[in-house]
Amino acid sequence: MARRSVHFWRIEQLNGDELNRPFPARRVAEVLKKAQDAGTDRHFTSADGTVMIARAVASSPCPVLLLDRVRDANLPSVGDALGRRKPLPLAPGDHLLETTYFAFLKRNVMAVLTSGNGPRASRMGEYLEGMLGLEPTLVPVVREDVEEILTRLEVSRFEFALPAERLSGKLMEGEWADVLESASRLMNQGTFRISLSVGRSGSADDKRRIRERIQRLIDLFRQAGSVEHFDYVVAEGKDSLTGDREVVDLLKERFISHVEVDPDAFNDPQKSAAEAIAILNKQARDNEAFFARTLPDIKGTADSGLVPDLVAGGMATVRAALAAATNSAGATNSAGATNSAGATNSAGATNSAGVDGHAANEPRVGDGHELVRG
Q: Residue-wise over 168-197: b if at least 16 C-beta within 10 A, else e?
């Protein structure tokens, strides 16, 4: 048996607004299934060049999507019985797919079954925005007391460590991605450890600014979906309410389930989806009471109108088509205005040739005003 982890996130906002009704996950699954059946290209390339493709694998009892990272470069090798290495035997046009499974549960919870190399939870947000124009804001589901403690914590130190061989910018996002990517070029053995602290020198304002900066970096760290790769992650500070020193283990703050999977089934493309669906549905049942106790209730019905049909190229194609239509309409209006002016000038030329039997060069009352008007 092999061990996998299921991470839980909550969709807190959608398109910048607080999400107080169910996320339209079933409609997303329907749109993806329709695109699959029609043979529509569902590939999306993120800003950093990562190529992804999503597929709907279930719509009930809860919608389940899989998101593949598509790789056709920097591929691993295979070896024979004697250890001789050779290229991964891919047929022309084939790609390596690394998969993560996503189930959309009650209370806008998203359960994420990882495979180790598949896309992080935030990548699903990128895909939905790029292909369907949906911008979900994800926050991790945490143990019952941790969020309250961290809110009160006047942080003085943040420290983490991980094996050097795991160092990679892909584990994190933003500034932390830059740090880990740079560190990966410095060492590939041993343990990489980093510690940030307020320090003892400086004024109260200086310490406040440093504390706020560290708190912001902790928030960014917590939003990453790869904390399980670290050996040690702690935040330390004073509880502003009690005055006590608190050390918060951020590896234990997340509400994460660890499951045993059959590697033969989980790595079989014909069986893996069914295996993942069964695992995620069981997680939904097993943890429903915890979610009901710790997360806000969500009422109403999902707004399916927020989810358009999927087109090849996603929202970039839609925006380009709208821009082209707008430019075309503007050109048509401009041409119409030019033709109208031309017609007026033509009429003016006819008037100058003579009206009511008067010669063009014959002076008439008001001729000067008419010429100005024309």
A: ebbbbbeebbebbeebbeeeeeeebeeebe
DSSP code string of 136-174: EEEEE-B-TTHHHHHHHEEEEEEEEEEEGGG--GGGS-H
Rounded distance between C-alpha atoms, residue 103 and residue 35, angstroms: 19
Q: pLDDT tens digits for 250-299?
A: 877 778 887 888 888 888 888 999 999 999 999 999 999 989 988 999 99
Per residue in 166-210, pLDDT (tens digit) is: 888 888 877 888 888 898 888 888 999 999 999 888 898 999 999
Q: What is the DSSP letter of 254?
A: B
Q: What distances in angstroms separate CA 156 from CA 31, 218, 241, 250, one per listed residue?
A: 48, 11, 16, 15
Separation of first and last alpha carbons in the chain: 89
Q: Look up tokens 């589901």; give the residue.
A: 141
Question: What is d(CA 154, CA 220) in angstroms, rounded to the nearest whole number?
Answer: 17
What are 291's two structure tokens? 């979610």
Handedness of CA 102, 33, 129, 99 (dihedral sign): positive
* 361 has pLDDT over 50: no
Look at residue 309 and give its three-state secondary structure: coil
Residue 51 CA to residue 34 CA, distance in Å, equals: 21
**Rounded Cα gap, residues 269 and 308, in angstroms:** 29
* Cα torsion angle, 293, 11, 8, 230, sign: negative
